[in-house]
């Protein structure tokens, strides 16, 4: 069946169970990456290592964290986002948004020579949030009577995210200790959000260009 981009409307415990399964996979992959980084090293992004050829750190760094509290916060954030969008945004749109977030963070790490090190998934999660909100906005008209309310909800969410990122950018102090006990690299949040938006927008444009699926008798 062709993918129309229609939000999945599967309600109830089965969908919630699926969210729990994906959250568990995310947690297990983060734990595995953290363990491998501790044992072998070389997973966290370090500018000097990257300049020497460790290109994989652009992506591996987004699976390791600065301690278990940091990892737990990102797993919790991932789970909350899946729960929020589980009945309104198709899982494939969410996958595109998250993937775009990872790519966006990788790009800013490669280009920002002032970034000496990085670890964590928060940038990619900003991509998941931004891309899912955009997908909700684009596909809300397919949600029946609730479509108008969902459009306003998506717009409000995107504006709130824009305000958050703007405030962080204007503060501009990446050395200030955050609530988790270490400084946050805010450009990753901005790049992740931009990546999630861009990938979802491109996918939506490609679907519109392709046109509606053809139904055969």
List keywords for this structure.
2 strands; 66% helix; 217 residues; Rhomboid-like fold; mainly alpha
Q: What this model shows, in words?
A:
The chain has about 220 residues and is an all-alpha fold. The protein has one domain (about 15-210): Rhomboid-like fold (Up-down Bundle), CATH 1.20.1540. Helices cover about 65% and strands about 0% of the residues. It has helices at about 15-40, 45-50, 55-60, 70-85, 90-110, 120-140, 145-170, 185-210, and strands at about 45, 115-120. A two-stranded antiparallel ribbon has the order 1-2. The longest helix is centred in the first third of the chain and has 28 residues, at about 15-40. It starts with 12 loop residues before the first helix and ends in a 7-residue tail after the last helix. Mean pLDDT is about 85; it is low at about 1-15.
How are the SSEs ordered, and which strands pair?
Layout: H1 13-40, E1 45-46, H2 47-51, H3 57-60, H4 68-85, H5 91-111, E2 117-118, H6 122-139, H7 147-171, H8 186-210
Antiparallel strand pairs: 1-2
In the CATH hierarchy, what is the class?
A: Mainly Alpha
The CATH architecture designation is Up-down Bundle
Low-confidence parts, pLDDT < 50 over ≥5 residues?
1-14
The domain count comes to 1
The number of helical segments is 8
State the share of residues found in helices, binned by percent: 55-70%
Distance between the termini: 14 Å
Helix/strand structural class: mainly alpha
The residue-averaged pLDDT reads 84
What proportion strand?
A: under 5%
The count of strands amounts to: 2
Rounded radius of gyration (Å) = 18 Å
